[in-house]
Amino acid sequence: MSEVKKATPAQGGGPGGSPGERRGPGGGWTRFVTARPRLTLLVALVLTALAVLAGGGVADRMGSGGWEDPAAESSYATAALEREFPGSQPNLLLLVDAGKAGVDDPAVAAEARRLTERLAAEPGVEGVGSYWAGGSPALRSEDGTKAVVAARIAGEEKEAGALLDRIAPAYRGTHGPVEVTLGGDLAVRHEMQTIIQEDLLRAELIALPVTLVLLVMVFGSAVAALLPLGVGIVAILGTNAVLRGITEFTDVSVFAQNLTTALGLGLAIDYALFVVRRYREELAAGADPSAAVRTTLRTAGRTVLFSALTVAVSLAAMLVFPQYFLRSFAYAGIAVVLLAAAAALTLLPAALVLLGHRVDALDLRRLLRRRAPGPDDTGAAPGWTRAAGLVMRRAPVFAVLTTAGLVLLGLPFLGVKFGTADDRQLPATATSRIVQEELRAGFPGDPGGALTVLAEGAATPAEYGAYRERIAALDGVVRVDGPVVSGAGADAHAYYSVVPDGPATGEGAQHAVGELRAADAPFTTSVTGQAAVLVDSKDAIGERLPWAAGIVVLVTLLLVFLLTGSVLIPVQAVVLNALSLTAMFGAVVWVFQDGHLSGLLGFTATGDIETTLPVLMFCVAFGLSMDYGVFLLSRIKEEYDATGDHEGAVRFGLARTGGLITAAAVILAVVMVAIGTSRVTNTKMLGLGVALAVLMDAMVVRSLLVPAVMKLTGRLTWWAPGPLRRFHDRFGISESEQPPATAAGTPEERREPVGARG
User: Which one of 94, 661, 715, 730 has the lowest number of neighbouring Cβ atoms within 10 Å?
Assistant: First the structure.
């Protein structure tokens, strides 16, 4: 970076700004923020107030599903069945408990029929059936004490949920001789949405005060510690408003709010740490507050903007998937990242100009700082300087052992099994889960495990019967019910209920889906059911995963090249970022699939991982790893440009950013762990998994593996062919404001005053 002296008109202290400022990106905005900080804050305050109004009630407009591919065969079959045979796809179940009297007791039967008739008369409820109406043994428990009333609430997820809220109080509870509880897919998803909203509020109440304490410990000043929280709150409120607008056009998952909170606080803290640290060093070098802010925006501000772009690109990769669950995280993630960066580059500089040297007010560490060892002559913490030296001296050892350890931690992921989210995501005390557990344990067969085959087109009774016999003979099929026929001729529709062997989404059920789809039929067929949805979801993700990975890798390679001008460093960044995620993926399988620590963490292991979760966790964790990687590489590149000393630049970069990255990672991990306290398993997995990935990346990969690998690659690290070098000279992004060290002079002559470095 450029030498920072006492501000003069030539250096940016005057109205026109320095030549470097006029040439640098965002020079006009820099001058506006520093010249009109009060106006900047006032505009931001008004926009934030509007965001609060616009984003109010956004959670009520969100859905709790989105794991299905809307273009898949199973989605088509489900929609057609809902239209032609509403009773074949019940999403609301009333579990009627008759106690010792039994479900066939006359008084019990009379009350149950009354409830059934009353439910059938509700507007928006269709396809109502019950054990007492049809006598189906599948709707009666094996001990005869419970039976089921099944119905379908029509409409989109939001409308169906609203109707459930309206009618549920009239049906749950005691009705004469029976006790009624509500279950079914709609009830499960609705209760999940309610629990997530409650858990998110609790996570915020946990994360905010703990984060504030940690920020005070990192910054020392209570005033400085409040700045990142302000940036984070603005980013979160703004993202809620964006999501509220998106819900007008498409479905958005309620799970995305967890990512909004986590990234809003985490990235705001990252960016604020970087900006405030640089601002303080500019003040220490003798600059006045306005000049210090201008220099900070031209240097650290570039890195923040560049980092936000890399994180946003990683999250944008989820837009290639058809499931709105994944797309929702892209909407929320891109919005919160860009808003956090915008707030860090507008509100924060304006506040720093107004605060000036008072940014260090209420220094709560003054006494401790007197006793602690001071920084060395480079301004780096002595502990990180010694650690950098040790890693560089033993680079082969650190590189081999660290890589081997990360690969070993990731080995459990080789045994991953994919499934679908169900009621077991909820806590054991959730009412809808209790109902589903009763159905699984006490009723014949798996009530949710049947596959449904939709038949469309003209057929004779003999053809329907022959097809029934054909699918009954397939391997893994236990029972076939039906067909149920509607219409005639070309408009005829029919469906068969097929019970596969084993669990609803097990290997046997998935194999049965393939067999059913391959079976010859005299009419058009399509298959749906839990296993069919899982098969289609896996196919959709597998088909698009190379595209998503390609987008992330190619854009990362380009952006890191623009930052460093090197061909090798971008490749290292991609490979080492991927290594940093191995511990997360291994822990996901070992803990959440296999059930280790399930008692301690309070969840039910299902023996599989929801199909979309690894994709989501990869995009989030990879983006955050790039965030930290950009901070480290920008400082290394800056020092290398200033001195031409490769090893010295690596040591300097680690010494100057190690503490910053670690502090940011610990604070972000606290936020993610708070999210991980959720009672919903998927949210718990996301929070705890990403927290582990962030800590491993900051404390192992950035602190040990990256400097060790760069030591081993030597000056070759910075090589690029001539055409690419010229491309970087023209379009590259750098935090340094001076030409590379190869221009002229010795490293000592080119080295800038220590206090000027951020």
Answer: 730
Separation between Cα atoms, residue 533 and residue 536, nearest integer Å: 5
668 vs 737, more confident: 668
Say what percent of the chain tops pLDDT 90: 29
Give strand ranges (E) for 487-641: 493-500, 524-528, 609-610
| Residue 18 pLDDT | 39
Identify whether 375 is preceded by a cis peptide bond (ω within 30 of 0): no
C-alpha 287, offset from chain centre: 40
pLDDT confidence band for 734 (50 / 70 / 90):
low
Token pair 């709105």 in the structure block, residue: 324
Helix (H) or strand (E) holding 16: none
- Check: pTM over 0.90? Answer yes or no: no
For residue 27, name the pLDDT band (cuts at 50, 70, 90): low
- Separation between Cα atoms, residue 118 and residue 422, nearest integer Å: 29
DSSP string computed for 627-666 = HHHHHHHHHHHHHHHHH--HHHHHHHHHHHHHHHHHHHHH
Compute φ and ψ for 636, nearest 5 degrees: -65, -45
CA 674 to each of CA 260, 658, 679: distance values in angstroms, whole numbers, following the listed order: 13, 24, 11
Quick check: 754 and 379 in contact, CB under 8 A?
A: yes
Token pair of 173, please?
């509870």
Q: Is residue 303 scored above 90 in pLDDT?
A: no
Whether the pLDDT of residue 73 is over 90: the answer is: yes
Question: In 3-state terms, the chain is what percent helix, strand and coil (to 5)?
Answer: 70, 10, 25
CB 299 within 8 A of CB 281: no
Mean pLDDT of 737-753: 41
Rounded Cα distance between 407 and 180, Å, is 51
**Strand ranges in 58-175 using DSSP code E only, listed in sequence order:** 92-97, 125-130, 146-153, 173-175
Q: Which of 409, 388, 410 has the alpha carbon at shortest distance from 398?
A: 388
Could you give the CA distance from residue 444 to residue 424 in angstroms, rounded to a whole number?
Answer: 20
Residue 699 contacts residue 665 (beta carbons within 8 Å): yes
Tell me which range, 83-92, 216-225, 240-249, is most confidently predicted by mean pLDDT: 240-249
What sections of 220-323 are H helices per DSSP?
Answer: 222-246, 256-284, 289-298, 300-316
* Nearest by Cα to 203 from 698, 680, 697: 680
